[in-house]
Amino acid sequence: GDACPKPTAYVQKYIVKNYFYYYLFRFSAALGQEVFYITFLPFTHWNIDPYLSRRLVMIWVLVMYVGQVTKDILKWPRPSSPPVVKLEKRVIAEFGMPSTHAMAATAISFTLLISTMDRYQYPFALGLTMAVVFSGLVCLSRLYTGMHTVLDVLGGVLITVFLIVLTYPAWTLIDCLDSASPLFPVCVLVVPFFLCYNYPVSDYYSPTRADTTTILAAGAGVAIGFWINHFFQLVSKPAESLPVIQNIPPLTTDMLVLGLTKFIVGIVLILLVRQLVQNLSLQVLYSWFKVVTRNKEARRRLEIEVPYKFVTYTSVGICATTFVPMLHRFLGLL
């Protein structure tokens, strides 16, 4: 198609007339952003059930990659402003169709529902209601914040439903791949890196490629982490192959304190690893490509952005699945 005009990072002034809706939908919008993934997915892994976190990460990575690439191939603009007021500055430069927030929220809530149905005892109607409410709130938040049209959101939900239905028969098979082959880590690193490096080219800089690299790298890191755990038998008890029906344990103060402690210890380690690896990888890449000015522009070059993001977030994924549980065991938190 034609070269698209570069979206202006113009942000309108606005007056909030209903604070309940404003805060509800700003909060719901955050449920589709990095702050949610970097808290919810590790929390699930450390405190609830690694089996669930593995499935969630797998589907989340697939859905987000398809969504981001579709955006950059279709190049549909976001809603024009005015009439809408756009409340989020960071993603204004991205295209609209499909809404990856809607995709991620639908994928996470319904993958959780499908994966827990035959593992835990709870009323199905309650699980379904929670999945619909969670994904519904995130979808509505995209309209409220002026970032998407109804069509963008519906497109996102339908693509996700299609991907879940398409891949569901293979979920258990993919679960078993982790422990299968010594070549597994090589494939898991090479394929996502290739996909990030050959991401659809845009006429101007938008954060989509960086975000996609972050997501694919985190997914690769998690997969390698699970593989390390199996291969070197770091997991104390083998995961059950058949679904085990369990009652959801009642929430006690002790459990809550233990869960929070594990979470804080884990997040601190992850943030340290992220900072350390990011600084190191940027230093190496800058000297390798002889970059003199170490500013934001230099970071955005393809040959620097993709490798540094990839190395950083692969490390984060491995750290979350392998090193954090080892630290938990060392500190007697398991």
Q: Count of DSSP helices? A: 12
Helix content: 55-70%
Can you write the helix and strand succession as a string? HHHHEHHHHHEHHH
Strand content: under 5%
Which structural class best describes the helix and strand composition?
mainly alpha
Protein name: Sphingosine-1-phosphate phosphatase 2
Membrane topology: Multi-pass membrane protein
Transmembrane segments: 20-40, 52-70, 91-114, 120-141, 153-171, 183-201, 213-235, 255-273, 310-331
Main location: endoplasmic reticulum
Name the descriptors.
single chain, 334 residues, mainly alpha, two-stranded parallel ribbon, 2 strands, globular, disordered N terminus
Report what the structure shows.
The structure is a single chain. With 334 residues, this protein is mostly helical. It has helices at 19-30, 34-48, 50-74, 100-117, 124-144, 150-167, 171-177, 184-197, 208-231, 253-288, 296-299, 302-330, and strands at residues 120-121, 246-247. It has twelve helices and two strands. The protein has a two-stranded parallel ribbon with strand order 1-2. The longest helix is centred in the last third of the chain and has 36 residues, at 253-288. The relative contact order is 0.13. Residues 1-10 have low confidence and may be disordered.
